[in-house]
Each structure stands twice: as C-alpha cells, then as structure tokens.
Amino acid sequence: MVETKRIDASDRVFELAAELFSLLATPTRLRIVCELREGEKSVGELLDRLDVSQPNISQHLGTLYRAGVLGRRRAGSQVYYRLGSEHAQLLCEAVCAERQLEVDRQGRTRPAQ
Predict the structure, then answer these.
(1) Which residue among 18, 37, 38, 58 sits deepest, i.e. has the most Cβ atoms within 10 Å of its Cβ?
(2) Distance CA 85, CA 68 (A)
(3) Sign of the four-CA dihedral 28, 31, 37, 43
(4) How confident is the prediction along the chain (113 residues), in pLDDT tens digits per residue?
(5) How many angstroms separate the CA atoms of 90 and 96, rounded?
(6) Would you kindly state where each structural domain of the chain is located, as residue ranges?
(7) Cα–Cα dist 109/111, whole Å
(8) What DSSP designation does 48 have?
(9) The model's pTM
(10) Which CATH fold would you assign to the domain 13-109?
C-alpha cells in the first residue's frame, strides 16, 4: 500500500504544482528528465539520445533550466545539464512507470493482427 502524506496546501502550493505539471507536459521534456536521471549530459549527448533538432532541445533545456528543474555548467564550449529538482525526477518516474504499466496491459489485451 502506498503511504500518503497529508497536504495542508494553500492555493499557491497548488498553483506551483500545476506549473510543474504543465512544465513536464511535453514528451520531449519528460525524455530529457529521464535521460538525466543517469547523470549529467552535454547538449550533444542529449541530441544523440533524443530524436530532436538542436534548436528544439535548446529551447526545452532553457525552459527546464529557468524553472529550476535542471542545473547546468559550462566547460569550454560545452554545456552540461543535470537534474536540479529531485521532485521533478520523482514525479516523472512515477507517472512514466504507471503509463508503462498501461502500455504493457494494452499490449497484452490487443488482438493479434
């Protein structure tokens, strides 16, 4: 059974939570967060792992960085990103794991074509 914590949250807490959900509501951003669970990666490494253009990934990385979800450092001409928010990582893991179960269930129940 999952342990739940009581949340005595103000409207502001719910607004901030909604902002985080909204921020992570794109597949590319979720994939970035999942990739960075393994550790810090350069923009080039992320480009190699994700099927997106450089301008597109830079836009997403910038948005996640400005929101505090990611941290970054520069080493020469390279920029390296890492997770800056454990909460965003945990949220991503929980939601993606639940959705993976749904995908697995659908795969088992679909008739063969």
Answers:
(1) 58
(2) 7
(3) negative
(4) 556 666 667 888 888 888 888 988 999 998 999 899 889 999 999 999 999 999 999 999 999 999 999 999 999 999 999 999 888 888 878 888 888 888 888 887 655 55
(5) 10
(6) 13-109
(7) 6
(8) H
(9) 0.77
(10) Arc Repressor Mutant, subunit A (1.10.10)
